[in-house]
Amino acid sequence: KPHLPEGIYRRKDKIGFATPENTWLRQNSDSFRSPIKDEMEGIIDVNRLNRDWTELADKQTGQVALPVWRLLNFALWTRQVR
Q: pLDDT tens for residues 27-66?
């Protein structure tokens, strides 16, 4: 606050930046499937996820990719805490 003009820090239309999860899921499909398969086997139906991956990753809205993205992050986190 002391380093910004008042017009900036009081602005109400600030938003965060969006990350391109859909693009990342499509471009890194094989790399991202591996941790999910390794860490989530027995927790989710990994075979179904693999079967539906392309359809899920090709959706154009982040809302559809969000569950897959969260699952991937959870799998990577699980791998780190073991």
A: 888 888 889 888 888 888 988 888 887 777 666 555 667 7
Rounded to the nearest 10 degrees, the angle between the axes of helix 46-58 and helix 62-81 is: 140
What six digits make up the tokens of 36?
A: 């999910």
Rounded CA-CA distance 32/57 in Å is 11
Nearest to 67 by CA among 41, 42, 44, 39: 44
Question: 3-state class of 2 per DSSP?
Answer: coil
Q: Is 33 helix (H, G, I), strand (E, B) or coil?
A: helix
pLDDT at 54: 73
DSSP 51: H
